[in-house]
Design goal:
With 445 residues, the protein is mainly α. It contains 15 helices and 9 strands. It has a 3-stranded mixed beta sheet with strand order 1-4-3, with no helix packed on it. A two-stranded antiparallel ribbon has the order 2-5. A hairpin with a 4-residue loop joins strand 8 and strand 9. The chain is globular and about 70 Å long.
Length: 445
């Protein structure tokens, strides 16, 4: 009743109308507002804001207007380690924003801190059209590079001592000392689904080195999925979770089966071969991996975004090494040096800034190509299942003619399904009125 109060617990999402608000992890606020249950205004069957907040475990929302509607009553109410990590994130955020061009600072913040809020919408659209939007999210590539750099540096340092070389298994010690570096970067990167998945896989890989266990990447991927779903079951319905796991699963399962028998275990480049041969080998493997990831995630991309980017098969060939072997290492090293040696950090981040602006120009050029991506209708669950069955049977065609018969039969079913929907649309004689959701209103067609 009116005039009574009682304590409640839960997550509250607050919207502030002020532009520049200084709030940090561990702050406590006192405010007065009307609390609402989460609700959206989109048409049924499209994006559900209520469902989106439910998966983030947000129980209510509120709106604060004006600087007098709330007041900060305390700071530092969080774990000291988390507060220290947040201080490091603030330092890196200020460093990147101060020393780089506004057009590239958003990209670098996404690569280092996992924050995509400062990326201009036009740049995001270019990355989506060209099929490389996944590079803006911290994933296995970034964690793998951090792990490789940390492991190589620690191994090099341990090998400087003859005593350690003779008395300790330095590779195991380097692997063990790499684990805290990976976990620290996971916290600095924000701890998203793709970050946690990649962290679990990399940590499991290094633990297998420590305990002399066979490294099975499919088992590692399964363990990562299991642990994430145990602690956060709603992640199963998260688009990032679905795309990241299906992409990695497609690469790990399909690529070895598409390679010739004698080359299934030889995915690394040979140091004895010429640079031309290694370049050709890299292009072949990259083209295969990119194609497998494209087809493996195509049904989910079509289901969630109603868009397919054929240009991604080409742009990923140069964008992945550009980002993975240039932008990520340079920006990470520069961010680390910004705590100790600012002049060298500034020099490195300026070089990274130039490389980032050049990447943006190339991506914009590819995005301007006609039919770089095109919109499609939402596939049904039956069609998605059919597609994955065809993909699975396609890599096992040599195992027997019954596999080939099943493959041909499913192809016929797939063609009949497409023909049915086209015939249904053309034969429709009744007037249909469709309300298309366009964001702030409806378009009646």
């Amino acid at each position: 009743s009116q005039g009574t109060s009682f304590p409640v617990q839960g997550r509250l999402l607050l919207f502030l109308t002020e532009g520049d608000v200084s709030l940090r992890l561990g702050d406590r606020l006192r405010f007065l507002c009307r609390v609402h249950s989460p609700r959206g205004f989109h048409n049924p069957g499209v994006f559900s804001y209520e469902r989106h907040l439910a998966f983030k475990r947000v129980d209510a929302t509120g709106f604060l207007s004006g600087d007098r509607s709330w007041v900060k009553i305390g700071e530092g109410f969080s774990h000291p380690l988390l507060l220290q990590i947040e201080d490091w994130r603030d330092h890196i955020r200020r460093f990147l924003g101060r020393e780089t061009d506004p057009r590239s600072s958003g990209i670098l913040k996404a690569l280092v801190l996992g924050e995509q809020g400062d990326i201009p919408e036009e740049v995001k659209e270019h990355f989506i059209v060209t099929g490389i939007a996944h590079l803006l999210a911290i994933s296995g590539d970034h964690l793998g590079i951090v792990a490789l750099l940390s492991y190589s540096l620690l191994l090099w340092l341990l090998k400087r001592s003859e005593f350690l070389l003779l008395s300790l298994p330095v590779k195991k010690w380097a692997a063990g000392l790499t684990l805290p570096c990976i976990l620290l970067y996971m916290f600095i990167a924000g701890g998203g689904i793709s970050v946690i998945r990649a962290t679990i896989m990399v940590v499991t890989f290094f633990l297998s080195i420590l305990f002399d266990r066979e490294r099975n990447l499919l088992h590692t991927l399964g363990l990562a999925a299991f642990l994430i779903l145990v602690f956060s079951p709603p992640s199963l319905f998260n688009v990032s979770f679905q795309l990241s796991f299906v992409a990695v699963l497609s690469i790990l399962y399909l690529v070895p089966r598409l390679l010739p028998e004698g080359r299934r275990d030889v995915l690394a480049l040979s140091p004895k071969a010429s640079w031309k041969r290694n370049l050709l080998e890299y292009l072949k493997i990259s083209f295969l991996v990119t194609g497998v990831a494209f087809f493996g995630t195509a049904p989910l991309v079509a289901f969630h975004f109603n868009r397919i980017s054929l240009m991604g098969w080409v742009t990923n060939l140069f964008a992945i090494p550009w980002v993975g072997f240039l932008l990520v290492p340079l920006s990470l090293i520069a961010s680390l040096l910004s705590f100790f040696f600012s002049p060298l950090a500034t020099l490195l981040i300026r070089v990274t800034d130039v490389l980032t602006l050049l990447l943006l120009k190339v991506v914009a050029l590819f995005a301007s190509v006609p039919l770089a991506s095109f919109s499609i209708t939402t596939p049904t669950i039956f069609e998605m299942t059919l597609f994955y069955l065809l993909l699975f049977l396609g890599v096992h065609l040599r195992k027997g003619r019954w596999i080939r018969y099943a493959f041909v039969g499913l192809c016929v079913v797939f063609v009949i399904d497409l023909a049915f929907w086209n015939w249904k649309g053309l034969s429709q004689k009744n007037l249909e009125v469709t309300f298309i959701d366009v964001g702030h209103g409806d378009a009646i067609l």
